[in-house]
Amino acid sequence: MAKMTPLQTVVENFGSKKALAEKLSAVLERPEGVSQKDFERRVATMSNSKLLRLHRVHETLNRRFGSKAALVDKIMALHSVGKEDKVYRKKIETYSIARLLDMHKALKKRVYKAKKSAASLDVALF
Q1: Count of Cβ atoms closer than 10 Å to residue 97 Cβ
Q2: Which of 22, 40, 50, 88 lies 20 to 30 Å from 58, alpha-carbon distance?
Q3: 3-state SS of the chain: helix, strand, coil percent to 5?
Q4: Does 105 score more than 90 pLDDT?
C-alpha cells in the first residue's frame, strides 16, 4: 500500500484542514504582538505536513510529560547535577516544544552513555 499524502492523512484523521488548524490554534503559543485573529489565519494557511508535525509534537508532549513546564523540569534534572541554574532555565523556557523534546532526547542519551561507560570502568577496575 502506498504512503498517504499529508492531505489524505489530514482528511482521514481530522475531517478537514480547517478542523486541524482550529484544534492547533487553541494549543499553540501565540507570539507576542500578534493578534489572535492573525495567528489563527497564519495557522490556517500552514501546509498540511507542518500542521501534522505540530499536532504530533503536542501529542507527544501531552502523552509523555503533560506540560511544557514538566518537560523543562525533566531537562533541568538531566542537565544540572544537583544545582539549579536559573539563567539556563529561563533561556530554555523560551524554546519551542519541538526543540525541547529534541534536547531532552539528546540529554537522556548522553546521560545513559555516561552511566554505561562509568559502569564499564567499575567492572574493568575490579
Answers
A1: 19
A2: 88
A3: 75, 0, 25
A4: yes
Quick one: cell of 67? 506540560
100 burial (CB, 10 Å; 0-12 / 13-18 / 19+) is buried
Tell me the backbone φ, ψ of residue 122, rounded to 5 degrees: -65, -40
Whole-angstrom Cα Rg for the chain: 19
pTM of full prediction above 0.90 = no
DSSP state of 29: P
Higher pLDDT, 22 or 121: 22
Task: pLDDT band for 20, please (50, 70, 90 cuts).
Answer: very high
- Classify residue 34 by its DSSP letter: -
Domain residue limits, the chain: 1-64, 67-126
